[in-house]
């Protein structure tokens, strides 16, 4: 069904997409605010919004958690991307009513490039953008130009401890990843929650990003603040299999 048939304008879709992305970042950094049933609900709608209907093979009979996730996602095959995003953000708001204020307070200026429902007029002019802004925009050309002309450290961390690599792996931008690795970006830097860029790539299920990172001098034993290594993270069976080939 077309967006206009749903009564949703292009501007509304853009606004919803931005809020959805901000909400999904909040969920990933605040999983303790949700129970397992809520996380499963959110997972299914995250996958539907990002990847569309589930066409991957059903996990094996002994992969109980994987089957639950697969079934939750599969059940949404007739739901539109916009419906999935709306339900996702509504669930987050219902569970943590002030999540948006909390998230922006925690993220600080690093989130200024991501407009929200209450701050949709915020626009950063190109001349005022930082390396992180260009990175979040997915603009590899301008990011590289900025790094070169300002001599910004490619491993600089924002207030959440995230580097450009963290943001790139969160977004799933393989072109930017290769460019940053070419500039000697360190794949082993951990953010304030102890997560490496690979933690992000595995969690967000960006298989091409995971494959590329595994070819670097990455430390596969890094643990986040909860003691989780990359092999402990819920992800796709394909990525799980890929990681098993590298982790001894």
TrEMBL record:
Residues 16-101 form the ACB domain. One of its GO terms (molecular function) is fatty-acyl-CoA binding. InterPro entries: Acyl-CoA-binding_protein (IPR000582), Acyl-CoA-binding_sf (IPR035984), Ankyrin_rpt (IPR002110), Ankyrin_rpt-contain_sf (IPR036770), FERM/acyl-CoA-bd_prot_sf (IPR014352). The keyword Repeat applies. Keywords: ANK repeat, Lipid-binding, Repeat. This is Acyl-CoA-binding domain-containing protein 6. ANK repeats lie at residues 160-192, 193-225. It comes from Magallana gigas (Pacific oyster). Signal peptide: none annotated.
């Amino acid at each position: 069904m077309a967006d206009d048939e749903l009564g949703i304008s292009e501007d509304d879709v853009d606004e919803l997409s931005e809020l959805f992305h901000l909400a999904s970042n909040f969920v990933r950094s605040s999983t303790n605010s949700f129970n397992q049933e809520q996380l499963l609900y959110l997972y299914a709608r995250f996958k539907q919004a990002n990847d569309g209907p589930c066409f991957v093979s059903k996990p094996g009979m002994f992969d109980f958690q994987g089957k639950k996730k697969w079934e939750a996602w599969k059940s949404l095959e007739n739901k539109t991307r916009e419906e999935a995003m709306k339900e996702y953000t509504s669930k987050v708001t219902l569970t943590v009513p002030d999540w948006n204020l909390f998230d922006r307070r925690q993220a600080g200026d690093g989130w200024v490039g991501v407009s929200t429902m209450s701050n949709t007029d915020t626009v950063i002019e190109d001349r005022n953008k930082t390396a992180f802004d260009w990175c979040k925009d997915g603009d590899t050309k301008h990011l590289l130009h900025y790094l070169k002309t300002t001599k910004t450290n490619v491993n600089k961390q924002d207030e959440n401890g995230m580097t450009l690599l963290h943001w790139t792996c969160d977004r799933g931008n393989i072109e930017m990843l290769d460019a940053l690795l070419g500039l000697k970006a360190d794949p082993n830097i951990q953010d304030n929650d102890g997560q490496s860029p690979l933690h992000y790539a595995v969690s967000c299920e960006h298989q091409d990003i995971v494959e590329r990172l595994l070819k670097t001098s990455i430390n596969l034993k890094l643990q986040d603040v909860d003691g989780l290594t990359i092999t402990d993270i819920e992800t796709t069976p394909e990525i799980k299999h890929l990681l098993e080939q590298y982790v001894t």
